[in-house]
Amino acid sequence: MNNIEFSDLRIFCCVARLSSFVGAAQELGISPAFVSKKIAGLEQRLGVTLFNRTTRRVRISTQGEVAYSRARQILEDIERMSDEMSSTKVEPSGRLHVSTSLRLGRNHVSPILSRLGKQFPKLEIWLELVNTGMDMIDEGIDIDIRVGEVNEPHLIAHRIVKSERILCAAPSYLENRQAPSSVSELAQHDCLLFKGRDQAFGVWRLNGPNGMESIKVTGRIGSNHSDITRGLALDGHGIIMLSDWDVADDLNAGHFVRVLPQHSQTADVMAVTSGRSATSAKVRKSMEFLIDGLRLGPFALKSQGY
Predict the structure, then answer these.
(1) CATH class of the domain comprising 6-85
(2) 291: how many CB neighbours lie within 10 A of its CB?
(3) Which CATH superfamily does the domain covering 94-160+268-295 fall into?
(4) Model's pTM, two decimal places?
C-alpha cells in the first residue's frame, strides 16, 4: 500500500463521491485544506492525478475512477472484517448511510433513526432524501427504504409492510365535479401528478374488479414533490394517488375522500440492502430497528399490515 493510510482512502472516496473538497470536508468534519493536503499526498504516493481541478469544480480523472473502485472495495472489506470479528458485540458502530423518499424520511424514518442514534451512540448516521432511484453500491448506501417493487437483481429486499396507493380528493373538489365511476373517467378529471421513484409519470395503473387497468391522466398543476401535490389536493385542485399510510389521518379527519375505492395500486414498503452490506452485523441490527419502528410505535406506517 506504500504507506497509504485507511483515513486517506476514506477522504479520497468521500471527495470522489461528492465531487467536492469542501463537501467532503464538511461531511467528515475536517478542514478543506486538510482534505487538499491528504489528496495531494495520495496522488504523490500513487504517482497519478486523481482529480482534475478547476476554479469551479472537481472532476475525478480516469485513473482516479480506477483508484476509487479499488479504494471503495478496500474500505468495505476492512469494515466487513471488523464487523464480522465483532459480530457478537451488542452495540453497532461506524457509518450508516440510509436513503429514502421525502415524506417517508421526514415523517417516519428520520425520527426512528433519531432513536437508533440515541440507543447506539457509536453509529454515524447519514440520511439521504431522494426523489429518484439511486445506485446503492455506487453511492455507498447501506439501507434504502423505498415504496414499490425491487427489480435490481443484485439487491436484497425485505418487506416492511403491505401497502397500496389509493385515489383521494378533497370534498371541495368533489362538490364541483362528479366523482368518477370508472378508471376511464379519470381522463376527464384534474389529476395531480408527481413522479415517484417507481412510477411512470402521468400513467396510473390500478387493480380493480376488472383486473389491471391503465389510464393516461393529466392536470393543470403538478410537482416533483409529493408534499406539493398533496397540499394542492387538500386545497381542492384535483384527484391524487398516494400511499394509504400517507393519507390515513386525512381520510379519518374528512380532509380527503377516497375515489374509486375498489381500485388501488400495490406499493409495499421495502427495506433494501446490497448483497455486500447484508452480511454486516451493523446493517442487520440497524435494519431490524428501522423495520420494528415502521411497523409498531409512534412513527409506524398506518397501512395494510405485514
Answers:
(1) mainly alpha
(2) 20
(3) Periplasmic binding protein-like II (3.40.190.10)
(4) 0.70
